[in-house]
Design brief:
Layout (H helix, E strand, L loop, with lengths): L1 E5 L4 H12 L3 E6 L7 H10 L4 E4 L5 H10 L4 E4 L6 H6 L1 H21 L4 E7 L10 E2 L10 H19 L4 E7 L1 E3 L18 H9 L6 E4 L11 E2 L1 E3 H15 L6 E6 L5 E2 H12 L5 E4 L10 E2 L2 H7 L7 H14 L8
Parallel strand pairs: 1-2, 1-4, 2-3, 4-5, 5-7, 6-15, 7-12, 8-11, 9-14
Antiparallel strand pairs: 10-13
The protein binds uridine-5'-diphosphate-4-deoxy-4-fluoro-alpha-D-galactose (UFG).
């Protein structure tokens, strides 16, 4: 298939592009490069030895989005493009609602006009909100605690309504847990702009000497060691989940499916630090700080629906995730170069 990957220059998008190419698909990337460096494209071409068509485009612009579909024979879309920083979304709600929802609208509208019906959506485990049951299953109710999370909940609802209105759609909603790790080459990985919001890139930047020490946000949660517990999933396993979901919606008779993409394993912040110290051979200095507002104590995926229906499972361990993150970070201490 010829697959349009929106946000294909981003962290999860780029790893998925490589796996799509390896699986024999053609890839068209659409990205505005607002949170990605253009130099990643050359690395993707080198790693895959394949051609990648790239559109530098703001997908909130309906006319520009329509132009991509008019210029390319697209068979399916994997939609990653969107803003993703929780804290920033609280400070700039209008910008988050406008960007994330308008982007989804333009893409879905252009798909509709061009008869493209296969859509894989990059959603998040954040849509499970504050459910007291820590192991998340796809049938739980959805909600959110910040504008970023609400954009995911709202786009999921739009997709459900679309699938209800026209059952020729084949939509996969993929709810990611905590993606970490990097391609085994060390040539691509997560490259956050500014101070990292997330645990793993922060730890990696401490290990490489870009930051003095980590703050551990709370050690008095109701968890085995008191620190927050999450389901970390290697970005390569996550990327493989997208390829599997794309295959699956090509054969299913269901207009819409929802799958958790997680490892089903739960690790605390202190366990991640220890794994990173083993992987890097370096100390990770840290200090316990107050809880971060909006954080939940603990949750992880029940990935059994995806395991069963996609024939997919996450195979990489937390140690693999840290080894691969460290290879990327130590080879690229400042992230991707400017072109
Ligand atoms: N943490 C620290 N110090 C840091 C950063 C994080 O102690 O500097 C802790 C957090 O308190 C939490 C754990 O590390 O216990 C993981 O935090 P992350 O920020 O890495 O990830 P979150 O679970 O908060 O958020 C992630 C994604 C969101 C998504 C959410 C939903 O980043 O986009 O999962 O599953 F919405």
């Amino acid at each position: 298939m010829r697959v349009l990957v929106t946000g294909g220059a981003g962290y999860i998008g780029s790893h998925t592009v490589l796996q799509l190419l390896a699986a024999g698909h053609d890839v068209v990337v659409a990205d505005d490069f607002s949170n990605a460096k253009a130099s990643i494209i050359g690395r993707l071409v080198n790693l895959s030895s394949k051609q990648i068509t790239v559109y530098t485009v703001d997908l909130t612009d309906e006319i520009a989005t329509e132009h991509v579909f008019a210029s390319e024979e697209i068979d399916a879309v994997i939609h990653f493009a969107g803003f993703k920083a929780v804290g920033e979304s609280v400070a700039k709600p209008l910008s988050y609602y406008r960007n994330n929802i308008d982007t989804a609208f333009s893409v879905l509208k252009a798909m509709d006009a061009h008869g493209v019906r296969q859509f894989v959506f990059s959603s998040s485990a954040t849509v499970y909100g504050e459910n007291p049951v820590r192991e998340r299953t796809e049938d739980m109710p959805t909600s959110a605690t910040n504008p970023y999370g609400w954009t995911k909940v709202m786009i999921e609802q739009i997709l459900r309504d679309l699938a209800e209105a026209d059952e020729s759609w084949r939509i996969a909603i993929l709810r990611y847990f905590n993606p970490v790790g990097a391609h085994v080459s060390g040539d691509i990985g997560e490259d956050p702009t500014g101070i990292p919001n997330n645990l793993m890139p922060f730890v990696a930047q401490v290990a490489v000497g870009r930051r003095d020490k980590l703050q551990v946000f709370g050690d008095d949660y109701d968890t085995p060691d008191g620190t927050g517990v999450r389901d970390y999933i290697h970005v390569e396993d996550l990327a493989a989940g997208h390829v599997a979901a794309l295959d699956r919606i090509g054969t299913t008779d269901q207009p819409l499916s929802v799958w958790n993409l997680g490892s089903g394993q739960a690790n605390s912040v202190l366990e991640v630090i220890a794994a990173f110290e083993r992987a890097s051979g370096r100390d990770i200095p840290y200090a316990v700080a107050p809880r971060r507002s909006g954080d939940l104590p603990a949750y992880w995926a029940d990935p059994s629906k995806a395991n069963r229906e996609l024939g997919w499972e996450a195979t990489r361990t937390i140690d693999d995730m840290c080894v691969d993150t460290w290879r990327w970070q130590s080879q690229n201490p400042d992230g991707f170069p400017d072109l």
